[in-house]
Amino acid sequence: MSQDGKVKTTESTPPAPTKARKWLPVLDPSGDYYYWWLNTMVFPIMYNLIIVVCRACFPDLQHSYLVAWFVLDYTSDLLYLLDIGVRFHTGFLEQGILVVDKGMIASRYVRTWSFLLDLASLVPTDAAYVQLGPHIPTLRLNRFLRVPRLFEAFDRTETRTAYPNAFRIAKLMLYIFVVIHWNSCLYFALSRYLGFGRDAWVYPDPAQPGFERLRRQYLYSFYFSTLILTTVGDTPLPDREEEYLFMVGDFLLAVMGFATIMGSMSSVIYNMNTADAAFYPDHALVKKYMKLQHVNKRLERRVIDWYQHLQINKKMTNEVAILQHLPERLRAEVAVSVHLSTLSRVQIFQNCEASLLEELVLKLQPQTYSPGEYVCRKGDIGREMYIIREGQLAVVADDGVTQYAVLGAGLYFGEISIINIKGNMSGNRRTANIKSLGYSDLFCLSKEDLREVLSEYPQAQAVMEEKGREILLKMNKLDVNAEAAEIALQEATESRLKGLDQQLDDLQTKFARLLAELESSALKIAYRIERLEWQTREWPMPEDMGEADDEAEPGEGTSKDGEGKAGQEGPSDIE
């Protein structure tokens, strides 16, 4: 309260953003930042998978670079700790919406097995260095529990890379290397346990010249493990039970490894063949058909060259089938990003609505023409227009040799034939011969597809017809008199249609009135019949009349007044 007695009101202001909110925003699990963090975590996990076991089995390696190992060990531990923090700031989807509430994210994360594994991987087991000494790297084996994070990073990379099959092969080779590396480390450790040089199977005695070097020890062990796991043979026979057990385990591992490698390679090859079949048409069926039908060699060669051109230059002719599984709106955006610039070059489509162009883009059909192949001939019925995407086409005379003009990328032709313009002297017939000089890539838009789209955009249709009329006027191919006659005929036809519509409406109105009157008359007649039925039920039957006469005979001496009165009551009752 102030000195003058008035109460001061303070507006509630939102709390200032904390540093945690500023520097640790909620990450989208499908976003780029989260993806790059996963790739960063690959390095400490691979370091622990490869180096720790190698240090445990090769003592010279552990002793020679102890300071470097400590630096790398605790750097990887720091990244492990930061990864847990990233987990607490990674959103999740609930009903399709990204949850950014950190309380809900933390509550969900701590209830998962991933949280327990992450904590177990950071248990400071290397604190035992104080009592056991710093040369026991096996105390850090709990760091292997972060391996699921490595698999997640590989899965994300496989979905994002442009070469998924090559990445699968590289990943398989990495797994094979890790298995052989681990096996070579175990072989050297077993040789040290049994005694170096005790027999031909174990590692030779390091006292021999050359075998005391660390590099030689690792390479010999890696080579020996490779021979065993690939079942190539040429390995010394084991002499002891431990050696036999090691060989049996390696043989079983080799069998499983071969099955995995063959299955993975078969999957990669199948995916590559499936992708090729989806992108490029299958030429084997066409070749077999031509062989069965005894097509001449020259035409067969042209067909094979066409298929070869598509395969070598990565040309696609079935874009619609490739994008068919995408949602309609997303498919339209992809098509717009690829082909809208080409469609917007066409003069009659300029200044059209964006939604109209988006629908037209989905109707474009890519086509590839071989050298010397005619795209259209003079006098053909025009059912589509073409847009040149790549290549050159020539407007030639009837002899096919004389060239009048050359059309290049970005140009178009045949647009007038797919629009019904009144007074067009050529009608819907082609007016020139157009031949491909080399391999040409065109976009085709059919008349039916254009008509289907324009049915929803009448204003755009009128604008396009006006632009087509201007083009015909410049080309002196517009008959004004015929146009006026067609317009007059169309107006007269529309007037007659309007008159017929009016007459039809009048007839429908009269017919409705007649039906209403008929229904009203039928109701009245039904009502009168029902009334008469109720009245006739009160009339006396003939038998009842006879009984009444018999009762009247004894009273014949009654007065005439009484008879007259009785005679008057009968008709009144009938009424």
TrEMBL record:
Name of the molecule in the record: Cyclic nucleotide-gated channel alpha-4
Bilayer topology annotation: Multi-pass membrane protein
Coiled coil start-end: 475-524
Keywords, comma-separated and alphabetical: cAMP, cAMP-binding, Cell membrane, Cell projection, Coiled coil, Ion channel, Ion transport, Ligand-gated ion channel, Membrane, Nucleotide-binding, Olfaction, Sensory transduction, Transmembrane, Transmembrane helix, Transport
Composition bias, Acidic residues: 544-554
Pfam families linked to this entry: CLZ, cNMP_binding, Ion_trans
Transmembrane is among the record's keywords: yes
GO cellular component entries: non-motile cilium membrane
Subcellular localization(s) per the UniProt record: Cell projection, Cilium membrane
InterPro entries xref list: CLZ_dom, CNG_cation_channel, cNMP-bd_CS, cNMP-bd_dom, cNMP-bd_dom_sf, Ion_trans_dom, RmlC-like_jellyroll
MF-aspect GO terms: cAMP binding; cGMP binding; intracellularly cGMP-activated cation channel activity
Record field: transmembrane: 34-58, 172-190, 244-265
Gene: Cnga4
UniProt cross-references to SMART domains, sorted A to Z: cNMP (SM00100)
Residue span(s) of domain Cyclic nucleotide-binding: 348-454
Region (Disordered): 536-575
GO biological process assignments: sensory perception of smell
Family assignment from sequence similarity: Belongs to the cyclic nucleotide-gated cation channel (TC 1.A.1.5) family. CNGA4 subfamily.
Domain of life: Eukaryota
Swiss-Prot/TrEMBL catalytic activity: K(+)(in) = K(+)(out); NH4(+)(in) = NH4(+)(out); Rb(+)(in) = Rb(+)(out); Cs(+)(in) = Cs(+)(out)
